[in-house]
Every structure is written in structure tokens, then in C-alpha cells.
Amino acid sequence: MKRTTHHEALLFDNEEKKQGTIIRKPGSRKLYILFYYFNRRVEKTTGLADTKKNREKVRLWLDRIIERMDAGKLIFADAFPGAPENEKAYFAKLEGWQYAPEPRDILFGAYLQEWYKNVWSNYPEGTKKDDYRLIIDYWLVPFFGEMTFFQISGVEIQKFIASLKWKKGTKKGQLLSKARAKNILIPLRTIWNDACDQYRWVLHNPFTNLKKHLPKTQPKRREGFRFGEWRDFLEHIDPWYQPVVELMILTGMINSEMAGLRRSDIRPDHILVQHTIVRGKEHDTPKTIYRIRKIPITQAIRKRLDILLERSTGELLVTTKTGAIFRPANFLKDVWTKAAKASGITDKVPYSMRHSFAAWALTLRIDPNRLVRLMGHGSKKMVYEVYGDYIEGLEEDFWKILEYFGRDFVETKAKRPPHFLEYPGTIYPMFPGSYLQLEPEQQSPGLQLKLS
Fold first, then answer.
1. CA of 350: how far to CAs of 127, 224, 244, 356, in Å?
2. Whose CA is closest to 349, among 358, 360, 362, 340?
3. What is d(CA 392, CA 394) in angstroms, rounded to the nearest whole number?
């Protein structure tokens, strides 16, 4: 027995000078084997204690390994099933075959490291990539990390869905919404499909028939403001943010777009929406190609832009009072919630301003195709299905909305329609079953509607 500084292990020589060596590492009582395969050092633990009987047993096993290696018949992955997958794949390539591990061999957590490197890293920078990472680390790894892909069955996913509850805050212990649960399952399904594709696994799809197991919670309906509500709410918003929220409701822009708005984005006759800031990171690539859009600057919009341009000291147009980046989470907590409590209008969120913009624009009967472009969508379907909910009594706010938005919002420069006030007695469609009729004496925007 002798000690070598190279291996930092105790080597047990054999009299016959056979290939391969049995070793014991300092501080360990277990036996290891050491040999070279394709000129690469292979060292593996046997898990057996260092006894005379075990040495003989391990020597016989190692001899069989060497015999198969010399005969060119050694399959490393079969001989060492517990070896790392990359090591199995490495020797399989040298042995002349393509290694494909079984689902029982791959832990979800171990595969993730490879997936992050080869798949996730190639995702374009943006909200989707960040959301995937948060969902995986916060929800998926704690539950599935130590499971093999073979163990991830439909039953296990049902258990996972049942465990999806708020972990902190006022809702701690409550089930997540159905929509949130579905979003969490998206990265899980993606990783599952990528693993099956990479290793050519043919497995039963554990994601079938999961709809009935999703939480029964219903998504909250996001409703826009009636005009009077908006005025009341606006009075209670911190004055610093009043031009910000007014610009949002006048344009349909969202928090991240407002945060990324630059001086250079303000053109002579339009706002070029092209930058966003999400979770403090600036993105030049929007959520979809349709989100890059031009919003014509009306007199009402110009008025709010002038305020922001005058007080801004940097390139970013919308900031906090201290000049910091406008962060939606902080705005919701420190500004919006306070105004909601003070005004008593607590059923609205910042996104309600985008819903209001759509509903108000439809009330003014602007071309739906134009509204689609203004909001940055690809089709009218999104506008009607998501933002087209009827707001009870909104038609009564027609003149107030028109005055607030301005006639230059309705009458575009490209094609100026006949001024509808120039044709007394004409009936204009409003909502299904409702019409706006202007009598001869009604020549002022301040006059009331006559609905029939």
C-alpha cells in the first residue's frame, strides 16, 4: 500500500499487475475503482466498505469491466447507470452509438441545468423569459426537482395544481386563480416536451384532462371607469402622477410603456411607442410586433406631454418625484391604492385605464380597426373580447368623453369625416338598440343626448 500525491488516495496494487486499480480515498472507508477508458480517467465509488472480502469482490467485477473494454464490448452507460448523463453521452459517442437515457434516469432538477443552458438562454430577452425563470425556481423546482421524468405523471401534476396557493401576503393559503395556475403549467409543459423531444421518449402525456382539476376560481372582470368615476378618482391621485395617468387613459398605454417612454419618442405629431421597462429592465423589443405603434398627438395629449417634458431632466419622460424609474408595483402600492381608498373607488386597477380607453373610444364610435392599431393588437378579436365589455350607462357620458378626448381624436387628419354636428336631424348609431339623434337646436357639445 502506498500514498500518491497525484490521486490523493490509497492505492491497492495487485501482484498480477492487472489493469485498473482499487483505491480508498483518505478519510473514507469505502472502496473506489480507478481505470482509464479512451484515455480518460474514470473513478467510481463501489459503496462497499474496505474489507478483504469486498476487495476480492470488487477486483473480480473490475476484471470483467477491463475484459469487455479490451474486447471493445464495454457499454459504459450500462456498466455505470449512476454516472452523470453527460459522461454517459460522452463515452457513448466514442463507443459509436447515440446515448438516450431513460425517463427513470433523469431528474427534473438535473435536466433543468441543461435546459437553461441550451434552450432558455436562447429565448429573446423579455417578460416571457423572466416569467419562465421565476415560475420554474419558485414553483416547479420545489415540487418536481427530485422527481424523475418517469415519476411526473398526471396524478402528480394534479397534486401540484392542488398545492398552488399563495405563500405569503393577505391571501396566504388561498388557491391561486385558474388563469395563474394555467400560466404556471406552461413552462412545465414546455420543459416536459423539450426533454421528450431531445431523448426521443414516447411517454403518456400527463397534461391531458387537467382542465377539470384547475382551480374553480373565476377571473375578476376588469371594468373601465364611468367618466364621473374617473374625475373623482383623478382628484385623489398625487398631483405629480396626474398627467401620467391622464396620458395613459388618453392613449391606452400601459405601465411598462409609460416607464420606457423617452423624449426621443415624442415626434412632432405622434408618440412612437417602442420601448418598455419591465421589472426595472429596459427592453427595445416589445411583447409583440404590433405593440410598436404610432399614437397621434391630440391637443389633450399634447397638454399632458408638455407637463412631463417640462419637468423631466433626463431622457426618460415618466419618473418618480426623485427622478427614479417609474415602477408599476411601487405605483400601485404608493399611489394608486391611496387614491382608491381616498375616493372610495376600490374596484379598479391601473389596467382599468386601458379598458377605459377602449370603451370610451368605442363610445365615440371610432373605427374599430383604428382602435386596434392604437392599442397595439393584431386583430379586432382582442379588442372586442377583452376590452369590449359594455359599461352600464357609458353612453350617457358621450359628450363629456368627447370634450375630454377632444374632437381631434375623433376626426383624423388622414380622412376628415363630415362634422356630425353639421347635420341636424341625422341619427347616428351608438350601441345596439340605441341611437344618437341631434335636433336642429343642438349645436353645442355641451348639450345632452336624446336616446331612442
1. 19, 10, 11, 10
2. 340
3. 6
Residue that has been written with the C-alpha cell 402600492 in this structure: 333
**Which residues share a beta bridge with 49?**
30
Q: Which of 86, 87, 35, 40 is nearest to 61 (CA)?
A: 35
Neighbours of 52 (CB within 10 A): 7
What pLDDT is stored for residue 46 in this prediction?
93
How far is the C-alpha of 426 from the C-alpha of 430, rounded, in Å?
Answer: 13
What pLDDT, in 10s, does the model give residues 338-381? 999 999 999 999 999 999 999 999 999 999 899 999 998 887 77
CA distance 164 to 391: 33
> Which CB contacts under 8 angstroms, 24+ apart, belong to 175-183?
175/215, 175/217, 176/215, 176/217, 177/215, 177/217, 177/219, 178/214, 178/215, 178/216, 178/217, 178/218, 178/219, 179/219, 181/214, 181/215, 182/214, 183/131, 183/135
254-286: pLDDT as tens digits = 999 999 999 999 999 999 999 888 877 777 666
What is the separation of C-alpha 23 from the centre of its chain, rounded to a whole number of angstroms? 51
Find which of 13-22, 117-126, 136-145 is predicted with most confidence, using mean pLDDT. 136-145
CA 1 to chain centre: 59
The Cα–Cα gap between 205 and 153 comes to 8
The model's pTM: 0.60
Q: Which residues contact 190 (CB under 8 A, 6 or more apart)?
A: 132
CB neighbourhood size of 240 (10 A): 12
